């Protein structure tokens, strides 16, 4: 049990932005050389996470490669540790597509009757392979399967990782609306658990969409508003509450009337309006009516 707890604690520290060198110094450096599998595997996984945080995917793959021999996935034996999908991802990033595909195919074949979270990991590996080959619909289907399995199993951390990966894929496929939705959901989870490294990754991807998103800073909203104009066909995601406020305001309701209709304070109505104006890059109710009723503006 101790190796599992230590691995989990070290992974949390790394994703929360603790200095990598400090975390790795405190990790059991001798464990990676141990013959005891329950020590070696988590030690290598911590090294892989540390490399991922640094952006060192060669190091990430190297940390996990040895596990092909010492902790293989076979029809007769499933590993306790969730490293296979991470290895597939690292191989794809490094351009080793054939090796990644072979690894993924073996992983899927050997886990189709495994526990739900293992099948979810296999679906993630399949999604990355499909994405790498350019089959975005197949990748999206596999990501959705993984997300459903992780969500049913209440594995929120794993589900957030799927949302981030799916959002990255959709952005690169120029499906910016869907990318924003997926990335915002991932970001909200990571922000809630203090995973600052992953929050920054979500922010980087969201900025790359060129769109506004729920939770962005005022300065970011100002810089992005021009890209969200209806003239350029941009997409402005509204939260459900912002959508409700906007729908009533464009009908001609005053802030007081909206507050009574939605059972919220009048100051809260104005707060939402300020955010809505910032997202659309507008200043008045008249402009809001023009942009809000001019096209499809679904909520996040």
From TrEMBL:
Pfam families: GerE. Keywords: DNA-binding, Transcription, Transcription regulation. The keyword DNA-binding applies. Residues 215-238 are annotated as: Disordered. GO terms for molecular function: DNA binding. Residues 231-296 form the HTH luxR-type domain. One of its GO terms (biological process) is regulation of DNA-templated transcription. Residues 222-232 have a biased composition (Polar residues). This is Regulatory protein, luxR family.
